[in-house]
Structures are given as structure tokens and as C-alpha cells.
């Protein structure tokens, strides 16, 4: 599930309670009188709906016989010779694994290649090897190596993000206290059962400017 940002404006707060019933009870009450140390202020409790989010399953299959190569240097040699050089280089490999090569698919224009090994699992050792030395004409080049894989999405669906445990406080009056102190006073007020509150999982208060708050499923 993708993270959904919520725009929290100046003098607003978000409170997420452990118990869904507490949040819904406070929303029904609507208005609350909160003691912010030096002044009494009325705040409004609102429900809120996040923007549209997306859920999906990403399935990735990594092929244990193939690796992708990029950064193959462009040299004035025949393509067949370059394929032979790549095959020999990865056949003799000690850094990543390798072994007998079944096929080399090389594209001179893009500087890429796909190495297919004969033995299943021969490519697994290259997963942690992102760069690989390639010796050619007395020089050492660095090839980028990555697993050969295919990916597809399943169960792709939009959803509407509603947090039933979270409330939005509006109309919090500015005080001379710092933001952290005001946040603590709000938290103390809404944790008390005598104020129809309960245990708070998270709280975020903004006294100036705007901040984006992200929700996870």
C-alpha cells in the first residue's frame, strides 16, 4: 500500500488513539474545551478522509541462470569477439560464481548483454556483486551486474484512506508556549478518561506553517 500524505495546517493537530471507540466518541462530541496552561480554548474535533491511495502486490521472479550486464565498453572489435570475451570473463569468474556459459546476448548499441549460464543457480552469486572487473586489451573496465528478473503487478486497486482511530483538531489558539509544550498539554487532556479520552498512540501538532503527515496501513 502506498503512503498517503495528509496536509496538516497551522494550529491543527492529529491524534491517533489506541481504541477506535475513543476517537469516534470525541468526534460525536464535536467541541472540546482544552486548558493550554495560560488560557482556555475551544477546539473542534473533525473526522477526515485521506486522498486516494493504491494497493497492489508486486511479484518478482529472479532467474538463477541469467545476469544482466551494462556498461560494456565500445571498442573497435567485432561483436562476435566481444561476446567471446564476455563469455570467457564470466566463465572464469571467482568473484561472483559463474561457470559454463550457455549463451551470451550482446547489444553493441546500448552496451548491454545478458549472460546465460548452463548450471541453474550459477547467477545467484552475482546478486551482491554490483560491479564486476572486465579485462580487455590490457585495461580493466567495470561492468554493472544485476539479476535477470521479471516483475508483474497483481490485485492493483485504489482505496480510500480513512483512519477511524485518528481525529483532527482545529482552532487551537496560539500561545506563548513552544510547540512541544502545547502538544504535551493537548495529549494530557485527551488521554484523561474524565475528558472522554483514552490512550494515544501518536500525536502531531503544528503551530506554524504546514507539514505533511503520512499514514501507513
Automatic annotation (TrEMBL):
| A cellular-component GO term for this protein | nucleus
Give the keywords, sorted: Cytoplasm, Immunity, Innate immunity, Nucleus, Secreted
| All copies of domain NID, residue ranges | 13-102, 113-202
Query: Where can this protein be found?
Result: Cytoplasm; Nucleus; Secreted
The record, for InterPro entries, names: Nmi/IFP35_dom, Nucleotide-bd_a/b_plait_sf
One short Pfam family name for this protein? NID
Q: Name one GO biological process term.
A: regulation of innate immune response
Domain of life of the source: Eukaryota
Q: Tell me the protein family, please.
A: Belongs to the NMI family.
Name-wise, this protein is NMI protein
